[in-house]
Design a protein that fits this description.
- By secondary structure, the protein is an alpha/beta fold.
- The protein has 2 domains: 49 residues, RecR Domain 1 (Helicase, Ruva Protein, domain 3), CATH 1.10.8.420; 132 residues, Dna Topoisomerase Vi A Subunit, Chain: A, domain 2.
- Helix content is 42%, strand content 13%.
- The chain has 8 helices and 7 strands, in the order αααββαβαβαβαβαβ.
- It has a 5-stranded mixed beta sheet with strand order 4-3-5-6-7. A two-stranded antiparallel sheet has the order 1-2.
- Helix 5 links the parallel strand 3 and strand 4.
- Helix 1 crosses helix 2.
- The longest helix has 18 residues.
- The radius of gyration is 20 Å and the shape is elongated.
């Protein structure tokens, strides 16, 4: 059996980095070596930034976005259209839409999708708060910007049923989002076109 090539602190760093999306054990080892080689320029500032983020990051109690303030900067922005709420599965989808400058509206993060096989039901998602927000007379449209997956569409249909009886237009993303596609992997132009071409659900 091969011996350990690094101390426990380095091994722990490799193991933690390997848990990040897109990084396997090999990529985590390469990233760790790079951080160690650039200890003063990268590792120390990264550790400091992570400590600061740990202390400062909050989940917005209004929409579910992550920020350092509650409500988040988007919810607190008076320049955004308060009549439109864009519903997304995850914060990464919200960030993708913001990068594309697709719409200047409010958001609502569900925290995932309905998935009975994984034991995720309506109570596990931020749906009740969405229905409550939709009942506000100032809200005129709910845009279901969920992924074009089976789970995403199931969630969209469930939300549409929950919004029954509330005077609000329900629309969804249209052109440009491929079936099975995920928002975070689409280019900015595709996202912007999809938002502009949204259709009634």
């Amino acid at each position: 059996m091969a011996g350990r090539v690094a101390g426990p602190e380095i091994e722990r760093l490799i193991q933690l980095l390997a848990r990040l999306p897109g990084l396997g054990p090999r990529s985590a080892r390469r990233a760790t070596l790079h951080l160690i080689k650039k200890k003063e320029q990268l590792l120390a500032p990264l550790a400091e930034a992570m400590r600061a983020a740990l202390d400062a990051v909050r989940v917005c109690t209004t929409c579910g976005n992550v920020d350092t303030t509650d409500p988040c900067a988007i919810c607190a922005d008076p320049g955004r259209d308060p009549s439109v709420i864009v519903v997304v599965e995850d914060v990464s989808d919200l960030w993708a839409l913001e990068r594309a400058h697709a719409i200047s509206a409010r958001y609502h993060v569900l925290g995932g999708t309905l998935s009975p096989l994984d034991g995720i039901g309506p109570g596990d998602l931020n749906i009740a708060a969405l229905v409550e927000r939709a009942a506000d007379p100032a809200v005129r449209e709910i845009v279901l910007a969920v992924n074009a997956t089976v789970e995403g569409q199931t969630t969209a249909h469930y939300i549409t049923d929950q919004l029954e009886g509330i005077e609000v237009r329900v629309s969804r993303l249209a052109h440009g989002v491929p079936v099975g596609g995920e928002l975070d992997y689409l280019d900015d132009g595709t996202l912007a076109a999809a938002m502009r071409s949204r259709t009634p659900f």
